[in-house]
Every structure is written in C-alpha cells, then in structure tokens.
Amino acid sequence: MVKKVLVLGAGLVSRPLVRYLMDSGFEVTVASRTVSKAEKLIEGHTRGKALSLNVDDVQAMRQLVQNCDVAVSLLPATRHIEVARACLDMGKHMATTSYVSPQMRALDAEAKEKGLLLLNEMGVDPGTDHMSAMKVIHTEQQAGGTLVGFSSWCGGLPAPEANDNPFGYKFSWSPKGVLIASRNPAKYLKDGKIVDVPPDRLFSDPAQVEIPGVGTFEGYPNRDSVSYMDTYGFSDRVKDMFRGTLRNQGYCELLTQMIRLGLIEDAPQQDFSKTTYRGLLEKMFGKPLEETIPAKLNVAAQESPLEAMKFIGLLADQPIEIETGSMMDMLADRMQKTLDYKPGERDMLLMRHDITFEYDGGQRKERITAIMVDFGIPNGDSSMARTVSLPAAIGTRMLLEDKIRLRGVQIPIVADIYNPVLDELERLGIGFKETREKL
Question: Where residue 20 sits, what CATH number does that domain have?
Fold first, then answer.
C-alpha cells in the first residue's frame, strides 16, 4: 500500500519537500489556506493532491491528519502544537523544521508511550547545522579527541551578484519572522563564562566571519547557545559554545538604528488607514525627516538609515498599504514588497563550524572547520527552500520506510538519522568541505 504524507502549509520553502516525496513514490496531500499555492507545488503530479485548509479549523486539520501516515507541519511555529496534538490522538508520526518549544518537549513521554516520533528541527538552522556538527564531533570523539570549543555560523543571503540593496538582504522566507528574531535576547559561553546579550545589544558588536571563496560577513549571536550544551551532550570541558547568524556588511548597524527608532516594535496595534508612510514618521520624529532622523540617532545623515528607509518606501508620501498592525507589521510588509528576489536571481546559504578538540590528555589541540556554501537555482528552487525543506523530506521518507526507530520528541543529533540525511543531501548537491589545523 502506498504511504501517505500530509504537508500543512505551502509557503516559500515547501516545494522541494513536496516534489522530493512525490518523486520518492509517496502520495502527498498539500493543504494550504490559499489552494492555488498548493496546486502550484503539485503541478499536476499524479501522486499529489491540493486542498484548501483554514488552519483555524482545527477539526478539519485533524481529519486530514487521520488520513495520513506522516504529517509534515510547515505552518507558523505557533501552530505545531495543534498538529502534534492531532498526531498523538490519531496515532501518526510528525516532522517539522522548527525549534522544539517547551510545549512540544512536554509531549515527549506521551509520544514514546504511543510509539510515535515527533521529529523536530529538520531544517537547515536548526537541522543541518546539528547534523553536520555532530558528525564531526562523534567522529573525533571515537578517535580519542575531547571537545573543548564549538562555534557555528549560518546565514541565508543574496548571492554576491544579487546583493544590490542597502540592507544587503533579500527575503526567501517570512520577513516578520526575520524581524521577530531580531528582538530575541541571546546567550553563549566564552572562556567558561556565560555571556547574556539583551535584544537591544544583539547587533552591537558583530564578529567578522570569513567564508573562503565567498567573502567576509558580519555575525551576531543566535538565541540561547548555552542550552545546546545539554542538547548536544557536551561536557564541562567545553569552554566556548556559540551559535550565530551571518549577514552582509552593514546589516547589524542598520538594524541597530531601526530598533533605536522604534520601527521593529510588535505592539501596540495601530490604525494606518488614513496615514502615509512619511506622515507616520513625521508624527514620530518631526519634520523634515532628512534632519530629524539623523538627529534622533545622533549621527550624520550619510551614517543614518535614510537611504535604506527610502529604498523600501518608508519616506514616500503614499498611503500605508496595511490598514492595521504594529510598526513591525508595517515594516515587514514594506520589506516583503521591496527586498524580494527578481526572476533569475540566486540566493545562497552559508554555514561554518569551527570545532576544537584536545588529544593525548591535552598535549595536542586541533580545530576542524566545516563549511557549506549552497546557491539557489536561477528561476528554480532557492537555496533556502532546498536547505530548509529537503532534510525534513529525507527524514519523512526514512520514517515512512521504517528506517528511524527513535520515538518521542527528537532532533537529528544521532548517527542513525544524521548519517543517511547528510549522505542524501550530498547526493543532492548540498555538502560540506572540512579542513583541519593544529593550534
């Protein structure tokens, strides 16, 4: 009997997963609020079906889950719990590309009791970052190495030839998701001490990170790195633990300025229906904006975000295109409409691990650097779509083929998952190059 997959969501990263699973011989139902998006993913494939689904209709979603073997949730992260609840009630496995939330983690015991797998963090970051790092770490530990330091960087960016706007950034996923992430605090371990970074300091001291053959990028900390000490099973011999995000030069200062201006606030909700972009900002900062905004930031005009704000239309005397929402909603809408990929443009996905080991009782120290550089396909799938959704697709295929025996709430940090997934990604053209240096 042909196994059935339910894919909930038809967003920017969904297509490679849907095509991979259909081409692997499974029946795939794609359910989306906008059925035309789901139909575009199927493109008439004989093993595909597109359905309309309002995610607020939990009962309709549960009925779809009942009729599948594995449910893949590509919905906003806040919706995963509803899908997981349906999977547990209906006796179905589940996969997502998102971080494990505390609410998801709380389902671990029930999932194990029912013999079900809720496989999370099967994207690129989180996902491939875990898998590639753990493969290096486990290999070196088996060779007698002791892990003492870990840093990992990841970024989805325009390819160099498509980097043509003041932000140095274009969106291959949700703009609001990017902005929400910019307001997160961060935490990491340096020289054995915990460093806490409040949201307003997230971009204040960017690192310089080289990706050989591509360039040097800014990097800032990504959420709570310290929690991954337990997740990865690291011992207290590890004195440096850092996970970070890569951006093009100038991005961090620009985001810092926009935060200071109050443009990345998700509350309160406002009525924009009778306001222009320029009018809104003039009400906030006074006239003329070309003078008041640099003065607010205490910088020269050429060092202010005026050029970037003009590029996305914030200085235009045009009606705001959303009727209600927060400043963040308004900014995300402008970014989505102006910082997009044009036909034929490529994005790229960069990842770099620097993992330090001691050998022979601390007499010798070496660092292994693993780097992945992946480019999108012109007029085809973006690198972000491929690197986010293909790990989930491969994991789903392994579940359907009964090749994963783990149960409960899991992430891909065990060899039985990461080895076959990384092997398949390499076959699909997504792989790492490793170098080693003595310290």
Answer: 3.40.50.720
Give the residue numbers marked as catalytic.
Answer: 125
Model confidence pLDDT, tens digit, residues 400-417: 999 999 999 999 999 999
pTM: 0.92
Residue 25: band (very low, low, confident or very high) from pLDDT cuts 50, 70, 90: very high
- How far apart are the C-alpha atoms of 9 and 61, rounded to whole Å? 11
Tokens for 339, please give them: 């910082």
Q: Which residue has the tokens 């840093």?
A: 151
Residue written as tokens 């970014």? 335
CA 243 to CA 102: how far, in whole Å?
A: 20
In the numeric block, which tokens belong to residue 144?
Answer: 């007698």
Instruction: State the distance between the two ends of the chain, measured CA to CA, in whole angstroms.
Output: 56
The CATH number linked to 364 is 3.30.360.10
Q: How confident is the model at residue 340 (pLDDT cuts 50, 70, 90)?
A: very high
Number of domains in the chain: 3
What are 110-163's pLDDT values in tens digits? 999 999 999 999 999 999 999 999 999 999 999 999 999 999 999 999 999 999
- Count of C-beta atoms within a 10 Å radius of residue 62: 16
List the one residue out of 233, 228, 217, 99 whose CA is nearest residue 151: 228
CA dihedral 115, 81, 19, 91 (to 10 degrees): 30
Looking at the fold, whether 140 and 113 belong to one and the same domain comes out as: no
Q: Identify the pLDDT of residue 12.
A: 85
Which among 61, 123, 125 has a CA at the least distance from the CA of 95? Answer: 123
Alpha helices in 67-181 (DSSP H): 80-90, 102-105, 108-113, 128-142, 175-181
Helices (H) and strands (E) in the chain, counts: 16, 18
C-beta of residue 59 within 8 angstroms of C-beta of residue 65: no
C-alpha separations of 376 from 36, 58, 350 in Å: 24, 35, 12
For the CA atoms of the chain, what is the radius of gyration?
A: 23
CA distance 31 to 51: 5
Task: Find the domain containing 283 and state its range.
Answer: 262-338
